[in-house]
Amino acid sequence: MTSPATHHVAVRDTRIAVHTAGSGLPLLLLHGFPLDHGMWARQEPLAEQLRLIVPDQRGFGGSTGPGPESIEQLADDAVALLDALHVAGPAVICGLSMGGYVAQHVAARHPDRIAALILVDTRLEADTPEVRSGRVDLAAKVGRLGQGLVADAMIPRLLAASPEARAAAGRSEIEAELRRTIVSQPVTTIQTALAALGARPDMTDAMRRLRVPALLVVGAEDELTPPACMEQAERVIPDARLLIVPRAGHMTPLEAPGVFNSAVLEFLRDS
Ligand code: MLT
Q1: 68 lines ligand 1 (CB under 6 A)
Q2: Among 225, 230, 252, which is best to mutate for testing ligand 1, by the most ligand atoms less than 8 A from CB?
Q3: pLDDT, tens digit, for every residue of 73-87?
Q4: With a 6 A CB cut-off, is 97 part of the ligand 1 pocket?
Q5: What confidence tens digit (pLDDT) does each residue in 93-142 have?
C-alpha cells in the first residue's frame, strides 16, 4: 500500500482537502454531517486493494468555503474533484448519511461517473416537516451556543445504545473522536449544511432508475436512519444487496470496521 497523502485541490469555487491512498479501482468515501474525512480512518486497510479518495466536503475539515448550499452542489464538487485527480473512468461512490445523500445525487446527475454505489446509514426520502423545523432550531442555537451543543445533541444518537455496544472495546475513543471532529467544524458550515440537508429532495424515483449495483449497509441499532430506511432502498433499487450490522448504530464504518471493510471488498469482487 502506498502511504496516505493529503492534497489541497482547487475544485470549482473552493479548495478541497483530500486524502488519498492505494491504487486500482477508485473508491470515493463521502463523510456524514457534521464530520470530515477522519471518520473513514478505519477504512485505510481498503487501500491495499483500492484507490481511496477521501475528501473533506466544502466548508468541513481542511476544505475552505462557507459550507454547502445544497446536496446537489456537493455532488458536483465530488465529480469535479474526481476530474481534478484525473479519475477518468467510473468510480465507486460511497457515502454515509449526508454523504449518502451526496452519493445518490452523483449517481443521478453524473451516471457515467459511477461504477457502483455504496449507501451507508442513510435514506432516500426527504425530511419530514418536523425534522426540517428541528434543523432550523438547531442552526439558530448553534449560532448562539457553539458547536458543543451539536456534539451533545448528536453523539448519543450516532452510536449504538445497547449495553453490548456500549461495552465494546474502543467505544470511548470513538466518542471522543466524534466530539473533537464536531466541535472543530465552523459554525457557518454547520448552519449552511443544516439548511442544505433540510432542502434536499426525495431520491426514490432517481434510485429506481439506478443502473449500477448497490451495496446498502446499516447498523441494526441506527437511531437516525434505522434499518427500515435501507430496507426501503433495497425494495426500490433494481440491483441492491443489504447488510444489517449487529451492535452498530449510525456510524457503522467506525463501530464495525472489520465487518464493513469485508462487505465492501466482497461486494466489489462480486459486482
Ligand atoms: C449525518 O449523519 O450525516 C446526518 O445525520 C444526516 C442528517 O441529519 O440527515
Answers
A1: no
A2: 225
A3: 999 999 999 999 999
A4: yes
A5: 999 999 999 999 999 999 999 999 999 999 999 999 999 999 999 999 99
Q: Which spans in 2-94 are helix H? A: 71-84
Beta 51-55 vs 114-120: how paired, if at all? unpaired
Domain ranges of the chain: 5-270
Among all chains, which residue has been given the C-alpha cell 424515483? 205
224 Cβ inside 6 Å of ligand 1: yes
Q: If one looks up domain 5-270 in CATH, what number appears?
A: 3.40.50.1820
Residue 47 Cα to ligand 1 midpoint, Å, equals 26
**Count of CB atoms situated within 10 Å of the CB of 145:** 12
Predicted structure pTM score: 0.97
Determine the Cα–Cα distance for residues 24 and 38; give it in Å rounded to an integer: 22
Give residue 133 CA to ligand 1 midpoint distance, Å: 14
